[in-house]
DNA sequence: GATAATCCGGTTTTT
DNA sequence: CCGGATTATC
C-alpha cells in the first residue's frame, strides 16, 4: 500500500466543477462526492474516523431530495442514537428545509416502534403496548424463572437474559433459537424460559427493546403479511444506514428485507471502530453486504480532516496490529497540515500520581489558551472516573462526567413513571408491582402473593385482580382496606385523564399517592434533589401531547439533556466518546488488565483483544491536536494494591510518533503481576449445581364448587360452601366463620 | 412486615 | 472497599 502520508498525488476536485447548479455539493472531496452522487444501487461507504461521514450522509440525503429522485417519505435513514438522528435531521433541514421533517429518520428502535404501532395486532400486541426497560425485563424474567422452579442464584436472570438477547440480536424467536447456545444454563431450560418470557410479554401487552426489531422482522417474514411487506419495500426507495459496523443480525435482516425491491441501500461504517460486539453487533455484516448485494459499490473515505498527521500515524500503526481488517488507511486531508506534537506516553507511580499529572497538563493547556470544553479524559471503565474527579475538585477545574445514571433511570423517576404507567395502561403488571407498596402502605409480600395468585387463576392483570380481591376476605382487613383505596385512587385518576391537563394530573397523582410526602419526610441529603427531579419530570411531561406520548418518549429516548456550551473538561468512557472530537485527549489507565481489559481478553480471546485495540484506535482518533497516554505502575483496586504493566498498546504506537516519559526502573522485576491480576479478574464463580425445587402446585381448577361442598382454604382451614357467585364463594369456615373467598384459593376437601 | 446482618460481586451501553 | 440484594431477626 502507498505511504498514507504521501500527499503529493492527491487530485482535489475544484469546487467550481460541481458548484453552481448543485451548490450543496460544494466543498466535498472526490470520494465524498462519489458517495453522495452514487444514489442508485447498493453502496458501501467505508469511512474512517474523521473523514466526514456525517457530512456525506446528510448531503446524500439532501441530494436525493433536491434532485427530485424521491419524496421525503420514500427515504429511510437509520442511526444508532437519538442524538445522531436529531443531528442528521437538523443538518438535512438546513439544506432542504421543512421536507426533512417527513423523512423516515430515526434509530432502529424508534422506526421499529413506528411500524409496530401501526401493525401491532399482526404480532399479537395491542397498539398501546408498553416498552419495558432493562429493570422490568429482568424482574419479569426472574418471575418466569421462579415459576419454573429454577434456582435464580445458580443461574442469574441476567445471564439468562443475556442469552435471550443474543438470540433476539440474531433475529431468532423461541422457535428458531438453538438450545446449544445456552449450554446447561438454567439446567438446559433456557429456550423454554425464552418462550414463556415472550408469552408473558404478550399477555402484558409489552415488548422489550429487542422485540421492537424482532417483532418487525417476524411480521415482515410472515408470508401472511406479504402484501404489507411489498408495500413497505415499494415505499422506501432509498435507504441509508449510519454506523453500519454496529448493526446486529436482526437489524441487518430488517434492512435487507426492506431494501429488496429498490435495492438502493447505502451503508456507512468503519470496521476499525466496531466496539459493540459484546452487545450483539457483527462486523461481519459488512462482508455479508458485499455478498447479498451483488455489484455493491465500495467507496473508501480515507482523507481525515480532524487529527494531526502524527496522531493519524500513531492510530494507523496501532490498528495495523489487528488481523482481518478491510484495509483502509487514514491520510491527512489537508496538504498543509503541520505534523503536530508527538503523543505523550507517560508512566506514573500510581493512580493518584496519574490524576495529578493529567490535571497539571490540563492546567498547562488552559494556560496555553485551550478551552476546557476542548479537553477530554477518556477512560476504559466507569470506575476510573473517580480519581480524576477528586483531583479536578481539589484543583477547582470545572468538569462534567458524561454517562453514568441517566435522568430516567433514577429511582424516583422510575417510581413516578410506574404510577403513570398504571394509569395509562391498567395491564402493566410490572409497574403495578413496583408501586404496590410504595410509598409503604402496609401491603407486603403476602398480599401481593394473593393478588398474583388470583390474577393467574382468572387470567387477568394484577390491577384487575386487586379490584376483585378486595371484594373478598382473602386479605387481612387492614390490607383489604388499603388496597381498596389504592384501586379507587387509580380509578379516580383515570377519570381525570380526559379533563385535566396531564402535567397537573401527574402532580396530583404524585401528591395524592403520598409519594411526594415520602421524600419530604426523608431526611437524607439527596431527598431534596429527588423532589427536584420529580418537579423536572412533571415539567418535561407538560411538553408532550399526552401521557402515552410521554411514556413512549421516555422508553425510547432515555438521555440526559446535557447543557452544552459550558466550559468544562469532559470525562467519559471510550465507548461514549465514539463519534465525538476534541482538541486534546487524555487516555489514562493504559495498563494490562485495565486496557486491554483482562475480562475482554479472558472471555473473547484474540477477538476480544482486537476489539480493545479498536477502542484504543477510537480514543486516539478523537483528538484533533494532542494526545496524552498514561499508565500507573501501581493501582488500588477493591482496596488492594496491584502492580501492573504498561498496556501492550503503548508499545504498538510507532516510535516516531511518541514521546515516552517514564521514570527509570519503575517496571523492574514484576513480570508476572499483570498475569496474576488478569487471572484474578477472570476467575469465574462456579458452584455445584443444585436441582431447583419444582414449581409449587396450583390449587384445583375453578368452577367445581356447588353449595354444600366441603372445602379447604390455606388460611381459613376447613369449611362448607354456602353460596356461589361466579368465581366468588361464600364459605362458612369451621374456625374462621363466614368469609367471601375466590374459588381458586380453595380445594375440595 | 419492617429493619439489621451478611454475602456477593464488581467492563463497555443504546435503545 | 462499597453497594445491592437477599437473609435473619425482632
Structural features, described:
By secondary structure, the chain is an alpha/beta fold. The protein has 27 helices and 23 strands. The strands form five sheets. Strands 11, 12, 13, 14, 15, 16, 17 and 18 form an eight-stranded mixed beta sheet that branches. Helix 1 (30-37) crosses helix 2, helix 12 runs antiparallel to helix 25 and helix 17 (445-458) crosses helix 18. The longest helix has 23 residues, at 598-620. The radius of gyration is 30 Å and the shape is globular. The termini are far apart. The protein binds a DNA duplex (15 and 10 nucleotides) through helix 4, helix 8, helix 24 and helix 25.
Please state the overall shape, judged from the principal axes of the Cα atoms.
globular
Strand coverage percent: 15-25%
Could you describe the largest sheet, including whether it forms a barrel?
8 strands, mixed
- How many helices does DSSP assign? 27
Class per helix and strand makeup: alpha/beta
Helix content: 40-55%
Number of E strands = 23
Output mean pLDDT. 85
Rg of Cα set: 30 Å
Task: Write a brief caption for the model.
With 749 residues, the protein is α/β, with parallel strands linked by helices. It is built from 27 helices and 23 strands.
